[in-house]
């Protein structure tokens, strides 16, 4: 049995675990059949993971899947209830949490000390050993000198003397350069606390960096600085992220966290997408094999039943009774074949192989019949030039002040909305959706215009079961709703009867997406659509939008999405108003 990891414990959300110098030549970071359970919920179930000395590992998966828990397990902040966690790192580790917490009453300076707890501990021990050298005898001095040399080596290997300068530089790059060290850390926003933790983790020069969504809320300058620091990091990294550009640039191996387990793929983000496509193809093959075997077994039951029906149940004895014997023999053989085929059918039905999810597809609306859609899947050509929305002289004072002088949205348009936080991008979408009435100006809508809107914030969680919530939202009977929801593959059938309020944020986001996909619409509004969704699902969403004949208006900070939408028309929202530019 391996001993439990023993990092330096502190309440810090960035944990740096310096190991005894005797372990300098022994480096290991691995999980073996590790299980983590919170109350009655198993978050990680018998997972295995090995992190190499220079590994570049990215964790992906929906929110609530267990990515943050896996990072905390590696850091030593969480202990497995079963299995083993061995983390022996002479160069220490640093864990920057997505939502760092500090003891009540902590100042920013105290928070930084906690974030750098392992280096502060080494520095304090160097001072302590130095003080003891002056008061002990020659024999004890030899042992203390050896210990002092080991401590100084560890401290200087991470350039501990300049760590505070690096923290200051990091805070400057992350937009917190003027942060008062005496300020209560509780007065910082969640994003500011996360950036504080990130600056300390990068400044620590630990052997292993554990980063949870490090690119969140960073502007382009801060992103460039972060990526430069990570490119220069000589140790290992395990990063939980939804940022597909980051995945493409830095990840060598990608681990998907799903249903308590881990699946690992190599060759970076492209390898991950290829592995997922292969998995879907194999799932389709397994489903087709299951369908074929079920059909074959059911055909055997039917054929043998017909054969049995043609055999008289009783024949008059012929001579010595051989005819009756032969009839009974044939009867017995058919009955046996029927029984075995029925058993096979029962087993197959008891263990069905589900098909892979259907490709995401938006209902294009446009009030066309099924026959018209079948003949022309691109849409009603009569609406090609029809304006769906025309905005003139719009003024809003609710929320962020908004001004739109002149903007027309037509069927087939693709608009990408950009602008600084707080400028009014979400307010603009609310006006387009009809959720917010402007204070002035005119907004003309095409007759019967239907809008599908994926909001930035996850919808409130009702107590209704998932399938009932979906049925009410899209206007279907429960049975039809279950079939429609199941075809998307966004939620498992086991989750259909759970109350929506019991779902994770990621699961509720997928429910919102399913409702949007099932809502006939001519206009699609997306507010930060990549939030809380796994990268693979975002890729599928982009494909579905490309195939949609309706108009699409998107607000996003996702760099890969913006790059893929390079041909879209742009809407720039600033305090001075809304400026549009056609592609």
From TrEMBL:
Q: Where are the transmembrane segments?
A: none
- Could you tell me the keywords of this UniProt record? ATP-binding, Nucleotide-binding, Repeat
- Amino acid composition bias (Pro residues), ranges on this chain: 1-10
The Gene Ontology terms for molecular function here are: ATP binding
UniProt key word Nucleotide-binding: yes
Q: Which domain of life is it from?
A: Bacteria
The UniProt entry, under InterPro entries, shows: AAA+_ATPase (IPR003593), ABC_transporter-like_ATP-bd (IPR003439), ABC_transporter-like_CS (IPR017871), ABCF (IPR050611), P-loop_NTPase (IPR027417)
Region annotated Disordered sits at 1-22
UniProt domain ABC transporter: residue ranges: 29-284, 383-581
Record-given protein name: ABC-F family ATP-binding cassette domain-containing protein
Which organism does this sequence originate in?
A: Leucobacter iarius
Q: What is the lineage of its organism?
A: Bacteria, Bacillati, Actinomycetota, Actinomycetes, Micrococcales
